[in-house]
Amino acid sequence: MTLTADARFVTRPVPRFAAGALALGVHGLFALLLVFGVSWQTEPPAPVMVDLWEALPAVQPPRPVPPPPPPEPEPPEPEAVKPPAPKPVVEEPQPKAPDIALEKKKAEAERLKATQEAEEKKQAEAARAEEAKKAREKQLAEQKKRELLRQMAEEDQMRVEEEARFARQAEAQSAAASKRQSEVASVVGQYRDMISAKVRGNTRLPANLTGNPEVRCLVMLLPTGEVKSVRVTKSSGNVAYDEAVVRAIEKSSPLPLPDDRDARAAFVPELSFVHRPK
Q1: Which end of the chain is more exposed for a tag (fewer CB within 10 A), N or C?
Q2: Secondary structure string (H, E, C) spanning 225-276
Q3: Residue 176, C-beta contacts closer than 8 angstroms, at least 6 positions apart
C-alpha cells in the first residue's frame, strides 16, 4: 500500500498484553512488600516459666504487675505501599503457681466440706426418719395393746354377764322345777290317797285278821286307769288278807288318775300300791 502526501495519518493501536503485564507486575510487588512488612514486625511469643513447689509457702499479697512495655516504634514504611498497623498485643498477667495450687486446695477443701455437710445432713434426716418410724410403730403397738385390753375387758364383762344370766336362768329353772316337783308330788299324793280310799272301801277283811299288817302289790294300769293285773310283791303274812286286797284293787278298776301328764307318770304304766287295814 502506498501513502501519499494527501492521505490522512493513521495511528497503529498499541498491543494490550503489555499493559496487563505491567499491572500484574505492580500487584506482585505490592504483595511482596505487604508480606515482608508483616513478617518483619511480628515478634515471637515470650516464654512462660512455671515454678514447682513441694509445699505451699506463706501466702503473700500479690505483687503489683508492671505495665507492659510500650510498643517499639514502627520502622518507616515504603512510600509506595503502607500496610495496616497491627494491633498491640497486651499480655494478661499470669497467676503464680503457688496461688493456683492454693486456690485448688481451697476449692477441694470447700468441696469436701460441702460433701461432708451434705452427708451429715442426709444422715441426720435418715436418723429423724428412723426415729419418726419407731415412734409411729410404738404408737401403733400401744394402740393395739389398748384395743386388745379393751376387747378383753369387754369379753370379760360379757362373760360375767352371761354367767350371771345362766345362773339366774338355772336358778329360775331350779325354782320352777322345784315348784313343779312340789305341785306334781302334791297331785300324786292326793291321787294316792284317793286310790287307797277306793280300794279300802272295796276290801273285805278276813275275820281272823289281827293288828295292822301291810301288803305291797304291783298294779299294771292302762292310761284310762283300768287295772290290767295285780301281783303281790310283799306279803303281809296273812294269805287271806293278801287275796282280799288283790280282789279289792281289781274291783276298784278303773282307778282315779290325775290329768297332769307328769303326775300321771307316777301311776302309769305301773303302780306300787301299799295297803294297810287301818
Answers
A1: N
A2: CCEEEEEEEECCCCHHHHHHHHHHHHHCCCCCCCCCHHHHCCCCCEEEEEEC
A3: none
107 Cβ contact list (under 8 Å, min separation 6): none
DSSP 163-193: HHHHHHHHHHHHHHHHHHHHHHHHHHHHHHH
User: What cell numbers appear for 218 in the block?
Assistant: 304291783
If we measure between CA atoms, which residue out of 187, 186, 185 comes closest to residue 259? 187
3-state secondary structure of 160: helix
Phi-psi category of 145—alpha, beta or left, where left has phi over 0 and alpha has psi -120 to 50? Answer: alpha
Q: What is the pTM of this model?
A: 0.41
For residue 237, CA distances in Å to 203, 218, 246 come to 17, 17, 14
Span 46-84, pLDDT tens digits: 666 656 666 655 656 566 666 666 666 565 555 555 555
Query: The C-alpha cell of 45 is what?
Result: 511469643
- As a whole number of angstroms, the distance between CA 255 and CA 253 comes to 5
Q: Residue ranges of the alpha helices (H) in 88-96?
A: none
For the chain, the helix, strand and coil percentages under 3-state DSSP, each to the nearest 5:
55, 10, 40
Taking the C-alpha atoms of residue 30 and residue 35, their distance in angstroms, rounded to an integer, is 9
